[in-house]
Amino acid sequence: MLSAASRAFGQVFEKPFRAIFWKMLGFTLAVLLVIWIALQGLVAGFVDLPYPWLDTALSILTGVGAIIGLGFLIAPVSALFAGLFQDEIADIVETQHYPSDPPGKAMALMPSIFLAVKFTGVVILGNIFALLLLLVPGINLVAFFVVNGYLLGREFFEFAATRFMPVEEAKRLRKAKNGTVFMGGLVIAGVLAVPILNLITPIFATIFMMHVFKQVSAGQAARYGEAGRG
Fold first, then answer.
1. How confident is the model over 30-63, as pLDDT tens digits?
2. Are the C-beta atoms of 21 and 228 separated by less than 8 Å?
3. Which among 24, 26, 75, 214 is most buried, taking Cβ atoms within 10 Å?
4. Of 9, 4, 14, nearest to 213 (Cα)?
5. Could you give the CA distance from residue 143 to residue 133 in angstroms, rounded to a whole number?
6. To which H or E segment does residue 115 belong?
7. CB 211: neighbour CB atoms within 10 A?
């Protein structure tokens, strides 16, 4: 697990993945810029103050407030766009590290978009739930890691597995290896918890869970082989 995490973290900053990261971040910032401009326009259009200096002050405050508020959206919005590049990330991992293995099968466009939206929703809902638990003393940090560890581990492992097997079989494998998947999810949650670093979470998680899946599937194959020889 730790070796897979270390390999994945090192790979995130390699050239092919950096290119994906910059594309993902560019799309994210473009969307947030459009939202920011729209918010500024709404305030200017619907709020009419009697003094010009009040208009200016309100515009500045709105702009600063919107920037702060939109800053919290960077991670989930980037996750949405990163989902569109997941198969590209997985292909690079397979080519670089598992060239002799049968290649995985990329998702069709619509299922890929659905998975991206689903993952974004998981991140948002998981963190809303964790934030609500901040009101409960003593379990807030634990709640953040447990909720995100479970959800992120499940989503990213099943993504990796479904490149090589039907969805139902991937779910069965995930349940059979629930402890390993959850521990992997905790590692991903640890990256998600660090501001700025959380921007690489979707790329790191995809690379990481590809390695975890390969380790798990290799272990399964080895056990089946021993059983067959027995």
1. 877 777 777 766 766 665 656 565 656 666 666 6
2. no
3. 24
4. 4
5. 7
6. helix 109-132
7. 22
How many Cβ atoms sit within 10 Å of the Cβ of residue 38? Answer: 11
Cα–Cα distances (Å) from 44 to 30, 38, 39, in that order, read 21, 10, 9
What gap in Å lies between CA 205 and CA 227, rounded to an integer? 32
| Polymer length in residues for the chain | 230
Other CB atoms within 10 Å distance of the CB of residue 97? 14
Residue type, 125: L
Residue whose token pair is 């002050």 = 57
Place of tokens 């709105």: 62
Instruction: Please give the Cα distance from 61 to 133 (Å, whole number).
Output: 30
CA 215 to chain centre: 21
Residues sharing a CB contact under 8 Å with residue 43, sequence separation 6 or more, in sequence order? 58, 59, 62
Query: Phi/psi at 125 (nearest 5 deg)?
Result: -65, -40
Say which DSSP state 63 is in. Answer: H
**Cα–Cα dist 189/182, whole Å:** 10
Give the per-residue pLDDT at 207.
92
Please compute Rg for the chain using Cα positions: 21
